Amino acid sequence: MKKIVLSSVLASGLLLAAPVVDPKLAADIAAAKEVKTAADEKLKALEAKLPQNQDIIANIKLGYMDTKGNTNTETFSLDGKAKKEFDTQYISLVFDAQYGNADNSTGVNEVIKNKYFTELEYGYRITDRLSVTAVLGYKNDSFSSYNYQSYIGPGLKYLTYKSDIQKLDLEASVLYSSDDIQERYITQNGLESEYASYKAKLTYELQIVENLKFEQELSYRASFNESTNYFAFSNSSLSSKISDIFSAGVSYKVDYTNEVAPSIYRADRTLTAFLSVDYSLAY
Q1: Are 231 and 257 in contact (CB under 8 A)?
Q2: Dihedral angle of Cα 91, 78, 218, 123, to the nearest 10 degrees
Q3: 185 CB-side CA count, 13 A
Q4: What is the DSSP string of 198-253?
């Protein structure tokens, strides 16, 4: 009985000693927490509006093949791309070059491939997905029916789909094209040297696994006036990360020209093994 009485006295003492919470103070604390939560959300929204990474992001792919024996050949390839991000704008540059030489039937070394292409693009983002663009392109291929080709014009680019592992961009441009056609080809075909054209382009990326990536680029450029005057390009590549900045892979390119001289193939196909380097330059 004494134990029960003693326990009751101790419990009553503890209850009397507990602090009494002021209802107004509790309400003030709850209101302050709500203000803090709203302030944190506003801060995140404002930080999201700040300019993103200002570095120049670049990627370089180098390929080389050397054959000795019955045929002595050397083939080089260089693919490069760089992109500079601003607040609502970007500038990107791509470069694709191929060069090769081989010994001919008399043992004299001669150039068998000499081609390069570059394209500069400026974009202004209207929304997170839609951008207004302006492109300037130039291609030189001494083994085609053209000494060089160039084009310039405005367009639109739309980010069709993006997830953690996939990305799909679609782009369309209206262009002024200028082609320097080889003289012997002009007399035979009478192609346009200056004309209005359009270009459609698709770019797709898929991160298959953590260190394996697939990339696909498709483009089609054609004259508005002459439906047979068109050019198509495809570049498929598969690369695997071997370090933070280095990757190794293979690419397969098809460069198609519909109107060519009789002695020239329409499709120029290239299979290349490459070493890729990713890096950023602070600016």
Answers
A1: yes
A2: 0
A3: 18
A4: EEEEEEEEEEEETTEEEEEEEEEEEESS-TT-EEEEEEEEEEEESSSSEEEEEEEE
* pLDDT on residue 92: 96
Q: Are 168 and 160 in contact (CB under 8 A)?
A: yes
Cβ-Cβ contacts under 8 Å for 190 (sequence gap 6 or more): none
Q: What does the alpha-carbon distance between residue 262 and residue 127 come to, in Å, rounded to a whole number?
A: 47
Our count of domains for the chain comes to: 2
Torsions phi, psi of 192, nearest 5?
-65, 140
Is the Cβ–Cβ distance between 81 and 61 less than 8 Å?
A: no
Are 18 and 141 in the same domain? no
Range of the domain at 39: 2-43
Alpha helices in the chain (DSSP H): 2-17, 23-48, 183-189
Residues of the chain short of pLDDT 70, as ranges, are 1-21, 46-54, 105-106, 183-192, 282-283
Digit-coded pLDDT (tens) for 164-175: 999 999 999 999
pLDDT at 25: 77
* Closest listed residue to residue 144, CA positions, set 17, 255, 244, 25: 255
